[in-house]
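Dear colleague,

Following up on yesterday's call, I've attached the two folding results inline so they're easy to grep. Please treat them as preliminary; we haven't cross-checked anything against experimental data yet. The first protein's sequence and structure tokens come first.
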Amino acid sequence: MRALVIGGGPAGLMAAEVLAQAGFDVIVAEQMPTMGRKLLMAGKSGLNMTKSEPREVFDAAYGARPDALRAALDGFGPEQVQDWARGLGQTVFTGSTGRVFPQAMKASPLLRAWLARLVGAGVSLRTRWRFMGWDGAAAVFDTPEGRQAELADVTVLALGGASWARLGSDGAWAALLPDRVAPFRAANMGFGVAWSDHMRAHFGAPVKPVALIAGARRVRGECVISARGLEGGGIYAVSADLRDGAALALDLLPDLDASIVVRRLQAPRGKTSLSNHLRKALKLDPVRLALLQEFARPLPGDATALAATIKALPVPLTGPHPLDEAISTAGGLRFEALDDALMLRDRPGIFAAGEMLDWEAPTGGYLLTACLATGAHAGRTAAAWAEGRC
């Protein structure tokens, strides 16, 4: 039997591996010149593959999970991700925050080993094949050799989201599935801030320790001041709430209770300036002091009011950074258009996986885990469907 996988990112390659293990003749068609480009980009600063933490905490990162996503993660969760990496010869380790990385840190050794294993299993990898839709039952591609049509017993779509178009995730496929796609929105992105000139000295500086407050969500994390606004893991963790209308506030002293802050502020300061008093009494570094002055000047003279400001400093945002610059996207192929096997309800034999599905999660290993998990789930269910049908 023949299987076609369209998309050579983590979800597509995982679907191809599962289908090859089930005995299928597998073709992977990728529009870019090489496979796994976004995976390689994600691994440049350290490939965060998954997260080791209590399972209920891990599951909560995905919000209200549709049944198909729940089944996928139950079948291929954090432990399976680590075992899979080890099977590719990659030693893994868990950092202090629970994030799991390959010992080599980069994605390239893992991807090379994975592609070699796929080729060894008989998977055919075709690059520069751009999916153009269907002609009857055949999938049609623009290729360097001209228009090509491929027939398969099952097809897995793993076409990616709509961020980082230069790496292949351009979202153009949405036009091929009208009325089934929720609009794409940026996820895990930075936000703009209209800084005053005195903040230039702090561009590129990390803000830590800090807790970010967005509506009902409070996250202990780190963010970075850039010329355009705020970026980094802490802001990404609350980006969905901010995108959906929540206001941002920063707790500049997340390790101190407000009453302790008040007491320290009330200590006699003599002729010491307020800035020096804040630095000495509260150990506020220049970056956090600059943020306090940027958004709360003139500072309250009352210790209780000043403490409240320090513990929840309002930060006005000008909006999210553009969709194409986001680490990931929300929106995509609606789960209502799929059954629990991730098969399109109105196109039997065609399954979908990865970031093209309408789900989102924060950074920290959740994104890659779900891409691998949905790829594995689509591969398994596609094989089962084809074998039952044939």
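Below is the second protein, in the same order (sequence, then structure):
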Amino acid sequence: MTTTSVNIEDLRALIAGALETDPKEVTDEAHFSDELDIDSLLMLEISTRVETAFGVPENTVVISGAKTLAELHAFVISKLVGETSACPVIRPRPLSDPAARLFLFHHAGGSHLLYRGWAEHFPQDWELCLLEAPGRGHLQTLPPIDDCDRLVDYFHTAIAPLLDRPFGFFGHSLGALIAYQLTRRLHHEGDPLPDWLGVSAHGAPRVDAGTDDRPHLMSDDELRGWLRNVGGITAAMRSAAA
């Protein structure tokens, strides 16, 4: 199976086959041991099946520490990316012992090239790490990840070995959301946290956000009114949509 055909549904079906259960039971975030009752022997069986199906090196799934399907999916992709010398972390000025690292996350329609000239503007002992999402830039042959949590999983797996010194995150637009959610993930997992989190072109999180802030949840009439108020629809379009 090639890298471009690896998707989370393939893994879901594989695990469901090992468990002899309906794939719907293997949700993205279901904990392997707590919710799916996968013991060490079953995990070994799943590991063997993954290695055979996707060409992942022997025993790497067992030692990956993946606890959910989403984590396993991110791991398999990152492993295959590594095997094909296509890494989601681009370091324009690699350092063996940097004083700090700054991870940069691009917007949805972009790639790591958004930040290609940034390294020269930072201290010489800082290492900039430009993140590339699957399906973008030099990873364009990989299947895109269209779910925020899974993309966070993917980047978490990729940068985990690089969080051994002070670091910061910066993201633009979608990259801002990923940087924020990845920071939350690190906090939840008890991992090292960034010394600084910078974001641009994205609204601040609001725990009290209601329907007014989420047009996709509005009724047809509410959506028409909202579009009228923000100037997002012409009179002719309003008449046609009425």
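For the second protein, one point worth flagging: The first strand starts at residue 89 and ends at 90.

Best wishes,
A.L.
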